[in-house]
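User: I'm putting together a small comparison set for a docking exercise, and I want a reference complex before I start. The sequence is below, and the ligand is flavin-adenine dinucleotide. Could you produce the 3D structure with the ligand included, as structure tokens?
Assistant: Of course. I'll restate your input first, then give the structure tokens for the complex.
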Amino acid sequence: MPDMQMPEHFDVVIVGAGFAGLHMLHQARGLGLSARVLEAAADVGGVWNWNRYPGARCDVESLQYSYSFSSELEQEWMWTEKYAAQPEILRYIQHVADRFDLRRDITFNTRVQAAMFDERTGLWDLRTDTGLAASAQYCVMASGALSIARLPDLPGIEAFTGKIYHTGAWPHEGVDFTGKRVGVIGTGSSGIQVIPAIAKQARELVVFQRSANFSIPAWNGPLAPDVQQDWKAEYRKHRARARELGTLYEFSDKSAAQVSAQVQANEYESRWRKGGVNFVHAFNDLMVNQASNDTIADFVRGKIRAIVKNPETAQALCPTDHPLGTKRICVDTGYFETYNRPNVTLVDLKRTPISLVTSNGVRIANANANADTDTDIELDALVCATGYDALTGAVLNIDIKGIGGQSLKQKWADGPRTYLGLMTSGFPNLFIITGAGSPSVLVNMVVGIEHHVEWICNCISYLRQQGLATIDATKPAEDRWVEHVNQAASKTLFPKANSWFLGANIPGKPRVFMPYVAKIGVYRQECQQVADRGYEGFMLERGIPTSQRLKETS
Ligand code: FAD
Ligand code: N01
């Protein structure tokens, strides 16, 4: 680590300059606080700056996946497509940074490595990889729920002489796959977007699939100006509904169990034709009733078999190991159709696992157990769409120490523990945006981010008005919240999938269902009630909390 400079002091330090960090900065300024954002990347944008892979796109409609805090901004920005592609979302975030003059308080190319609560001063001391140091009364983790990309632990991968890419760290200059033999590992949302795009360019594309996934067509297209104008005319009404519901879909008040197979089929067909995540809201019991879920899952498997011409490939592409929607549903543009192209092959890793990455490709085990030779697949490039250390990864990547030098990593060794998803006991004045224990990745994340920023800013205002130095979650309140979040998940089908929602994609990560499955409106009320009751479940102190106090109150 380079020599550290003398720390510069701020009221609030914010880690990350994506949607969350930028909004937090803007609102903190509004409170008259001095604020500094520390960002590892060279520019603003967060995931939309990192994920420049071909095909990267939002699956929440553009008019909804945007900030609501400024009416002028929402009226003046014109979206070109129903679902915006990565370059357009990045331009939007860059526009926000410029329009609100945010860049002057952001330090780029600076990764926070450590954050320590100093019991003598009551401040957070942050250390970075560039030697820059900062101290602040409040520290806000806007470091992203999906910002720590995971490369697969494949034997021999270091020997591969071709290029290796991760969708979440895509080269800014782009990649030309023309004439190349390309392998893609991973068939989650990123894989399902990048595969059709690479297939159009590469000489050969080999998709390595470990688990098949459900995907719904986006039917993306240009956003008609009159549709945009009509929506904008009613923006306040739409935003108010979004604060209750997250993304606005056609939510059904009927259960699949109540209606005939024909009614189910008609509903699924009509929603398939409209496309997008709206599909999974066809009935209100799909995420809680296995039999109902089977009906929608069967419908999608039927669609896959109808689209994909090779029956063996179609079968391999049919997900059978999890209920539909219990892994993040994917939305695609021509994904299943891509397997009808002559230059695309699917390798089902459940039948023929990768035994070795060689210097010039991938070796897969033979499907025939009696055959004594493995098969070598020659590749020029390997694209890893292998996901993220989600929800906790970015926070735990930083060596965070709270009262008494307690390490957050140790505290969360058996899974994340938060109160309201916003704070964790023993770490006063440390706030987390869209962290574990909040709806986070289960809703339109911009809505979740805005809610968290609002709550944090109201909380800081309250502390200042009351002359309070710190806020810290109590352990009993945190224990009750963790139990509440677990209980909520256990009433749904979500725990049935080996998903990143419960850390199943990271070897050794504790299996805990991390997001809170309640509707965002319910969660907002819960957070508001806590605030209205004088921050019930939190300790508010005039002096600086010490390790002695921690022992007395835990
Ligand atoms: P991020 O955008 O992840 O920003 C966090 C920032 O923190 C990053 O720039 C990172 O570099 C920085 N950072 C992290 N650690 C450190 C550190 N130690 N020091 C300094 N800087 C650090 N959500 C939806 O609701 N709808 C969608 O359609 C959707 N599509 C998505 C598509 C992709 C490809 C991905 C990856 C995610 C998508 N998401 C979507 C989820 C997305 O994460 C959120 O919507 C939102 O962009 C998150 O914003 P953020 O600011 O919280 O985090
Ligand atoms: O990551 P993922 P992602 N060998 O973890 C496979 C958001 N997002 O980047 O399922 C072989 O979902 C893994 O297999 P398995 C969205 O929230 C949104 O695609 O673990 N395969 C899986 O197929 C999303 O959910 C959009 O068996 C390996 C894939 O890699 C989240 O980001 C677009 C492997 C990883 O899928 C993450 O999506 C993009 C190995 N060793 C992202 N390791 C929108 O469109 C992993 N896999 C909104």
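The chain has two domains: 8-148+389-553, 149-213+327-387. The chain is about 30% helix and 15% strand.
User: Thanks, that's exactly what I needed.
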